[in-house]
Design a protein that fits this description.
By secondary structure, the protein is an alpha/beta fold. It has 20 helices and 13 strands.
Length: 567
């Protein structure tokens, strides 16, 4: 809620002899007021009935002059406050106008610098919609940190070494006989990886060949290194194209191939300190059972490293910059346990810098979990083109007057909005199943519905023909319940930003966008704006619409979603 509103309510409570830290809430029904204050804590201290305490507070507050608050009434154990719609409108609309794109910002971060790492994808695999969700969540969390007063260092960590690379290279050499593609090389490598995975599952006797190949390229053997370097470059070029589309620019990129050697040295240091020990068949392990984290494998018996080997060195490298206060990385939540092991090993080794892992739910197919190894994935490129084709047809039918260039521009924006909103509208820790028909619909909980709300307000403002001067707006003319509910929602946007970051959950912002679009629709459908009773009321309602649009555009921007002027 807008800070000034809550501050007046707190002042009223203090004048009534109440100084409590209990949280305010919203009554279940607008007829019961706009803000509720619970009396359970005070009643417990005074050893009274909460409803009795609420009634006493109501009677004491009634003796004071009210400003933003128009009435106070006790409902059971709550003291409920009714807001003056006109005064609320003046505060909210003018603050939205004054702060513009910075509306909702706070300074909780106080300039502390965080390093955020994502999507941390593997080379030699396809880029699928699971990676897309990672990028969408990462982009939004980056914006949430920025709006909360943090400085951001955006980095990526590319897993370009290890068993998955060996498997793909083995497939190129053995199954494709060294034949290379002419185009779409990233997708081709993903297909080879899946083909090799299926073949090796049926022919386990070939796995020794893959291990030998891995040892060779990790040793920079000239017989395999050129193929590794060439195919890795194909992947990096493909990734870079996607990063540009998603609006990501990295300050630094770490590569596993550059960290593996230092990681092996750290494993040796852990052995020397007796933090690690030799396990079965010469493998190097750390026993974390006393911490409830089982046994962590740091090095295979044949001397080959694993992801954790390199991640030990990555943590060290990240904090080579002295101004980093915290390192954050974002992965699927199937790696939650792995990162608990990694962080505990670093702690045991004396690492004292702040590391945070944020996990998110996977994206599944209707028939079940995606698998790169089995080739059961929805590729980002394929999905983008499918969404674009559908929206192009839909938009062309709705607007036969649009020329080709305008149609392409708007459908491109809509396409990216659909992809980004779909990946973020569910709780971050929930597994999602992509439902094509639902996501491209112009109705319901979808990106097209939200962008249509923005376009509709734009159209309304263009038609108003009024030169709105906020200093002359008669906010007291805004009295309707739907106007108040819309204002309260806009006023709550700064709290939405705080809540979304505290929970590492972009869906909090996505839900706010949907709620705001719905509240605007309820207001617009019930009350005329352009044909209001008089010109002054039209001006006040247009100002309210502008505040709603600016807040919605701001919130969609946090989700890295651009809007369109018309639809």
């Amino acid at each position: 809620m807008l800070g000034k509103v809550l501050e007046e309510i707190k002042n009223l409570l203090r004048e009534a002899g109440v100084d409590s830290t209990e949280d305010f809430s919203v009554p279940p029904d607008p007829s019961m007021g706009d803000i509720a204050f619970p009396c359970f804590g005070i009643a417990k201290e005074q050893k009274k009935n909460p409803a009795e305490v609420a009634k006493e507070i109501e009677l004491r507050i009634k003796n004071y002059e009210l400003r933003i608050v128009s009435a106070v009434k006790a409902f059971g154990p709550y003291v409920n406050f009714y807001l003056n719609t006109g005064e609320l409108a003046r505060l909210v609309i003018e603050e939205v106008k004054e702060k513009a794109e910075e509306y909702g910002n706070n300074d909780d971060g106080n300039g502390r610098k965080v390093m955020i790492e994502y999507p941390s994808q593997n080379t030699h695999k396809e880029f699928h919609i699971g990676h897309l969700r990672n990028i969408c969540i990462g982009n939004t969390l980056t914006r949430l940190y920025d709006k909360s007063g943090y400085k951001i260092s955006l980095v990526n960590y590319v897993n370009d070494f290890g068993a998955h690379v060996a498997k793909c290279l083995w497939g190129v050499i053995t199954l494709r006989r060294g034949k290379e593609p002419e185009d779409n090389k990233l997708k081709w490598l993903g297909e080879v990886y899946a083909e090799a995975g299926n073949y090796l599952a049926e022919h386990p006797e070939k796995k020794d060949e893959v291990e030998d190949l891995q040892n060779k390229f990790e040793a920079h053997d000239p017989s395999i290194w050129p193929l590794f370097s060439r195919t890795r470059d194909w992947c990096l070029e493909g990734f870079e194209k996607i990063y540009r589309e998603m609006g990501i620019s990295y300050e630094r990129v770490f590569y596993e191939s550059e960290l593996k050697e230092r990681g092996q040295q750290i494993v040796d240091e852990l052995l020397a300190k007796k933090i690690a020990q030799v396990g079965e068949r010469g493998a190097i392990i750390v026993d974390l059972t006393e911490y409830g984290l089982d046994i962590a494998l740091l090095r295979k018996g044949n001397g080959a490293g694993l992801y954790i080997t390199s991640d030990l060195a990555l943590a060290e490298q990240k904090f080579s910059a002295p101004d980093i206060d915290e390192s954050i990385n974002i992965t699927g939540d199937e790696q939650n346990f792995y990162f608990k092991q990694l962080f505990k090993i670093l702690e045991l080794n004396g690492f004292r810098r702040k590391l945070t892992h944020i996990g998110y739910g996977l994206v599944n197919l209707p028939e079940g979990k995606m698998s790169s190894r089995q080739g059961r994935v929805i590729l980002y490129d394929d999905l983008r083109e499918q969404v674009r084709a559908h929206l192009t047809t839909e938009s062309a039918e709705r607007h036969p007057d649009w020329n080709r260039e305008k149609l392409a521009d708007i459908t491109d924006t809509l396409t990216m909005a659909v992809l980004k909103f779909t990946m973020q509208k569910h709780e971050a820790n929930k597994v999602i199943v992509f439902n094509f028909a639902e996501e491209v619909s112009f109705e319901g909980y979808s990106a097209p519905y939200l962008l249509y709300a923005v376009a509709r307000i734009n159209s309304l403002i263009r038609k108003s023909e009024l030169k709105i001067s906020h200093s002359k707006i008669k906010y007291e003319l805004l009295k309707e319940s739907e106007e108040k509910q819309l204002l309260i929602l806009i006023a709550n946007y700064p709290e939405v930003i705080k809540k979304a970051l505290a929970q590492y959950n972009p869906s909090v912002v996505a839900k706010f966008c949907f709620d705001l679009a719905q509240k605007f629709s309820e207001f617009y459908n019930k009350h005329s704006v352009l044909n209001a009773e008089n010109e002054e009321l039209t001006a006040a309602r247009v100002a309210l619409c502008m505040a709603a649009k600016n807040t919605l555009v701001n919130a969609l921007g946090v989700l890295s979603i651009e809007t369109v002027d018309e639809m």
